[in-house]
Design brief:
2 helices, 114 residues, five-stranded mixed beta sheet, alpha+beta, globular, Trna Endonuclease, Chain: A, domain 1, 38% strand
Length: 114
């Protein structure tokens, strides 16, 4: 379990660095409520990106993004609505849902994945 947690943290660190290089500001990371967790939430201008980070050590079991199916997408959308409802003073924003695939040292961010 410790290995999986470390691997997940590594992937999230890579995703946060990628977004910062793109000019995004980190708003939240590992936001939790009773119904689940959002990995990374960033903002650039009026765009808020909610990113599900999937990290694998290899492609032996397929690409990491394949693990973000319809049920997971629905859950992330509901959680994002809860997160937004908690944000006081945040003006109108455009929200998008990204998936970051991290395999080894490589990262691929799929913007507006769903």
């Amino acid at each position: 379990m410790a290995y999986r947690q470390a691997l997940g943290r590594y992937g999230e660190d890579r995703a946060v660095r990628w977004y910062r290089r793109q000019g995004f500001q980190l708003l939240d990371r590992n936001w939790r409520c009773s119904r689940g967790e959002l990995d990374v939430i960033v903002q650039r201008g009026c765009v808020v990106a909610v990113c599900e980070v999937k990290t694998r050590s290899s492609l032996a079991f397929g690409s990491p993004g394949e693990a973000v199916g319809r049920d997971k997408q629905r859950r992330i959308r509901r959680l994002a609505a809860e997160w937004l409802a908690e944000q006081e003073g945040m003006g109108p924003v455009q929200i998008r849902f990204d998936v970051a695939e991290v395999v080894g040292r490589e990262i691929r961010v799929i913007e507006s994945a769903f």
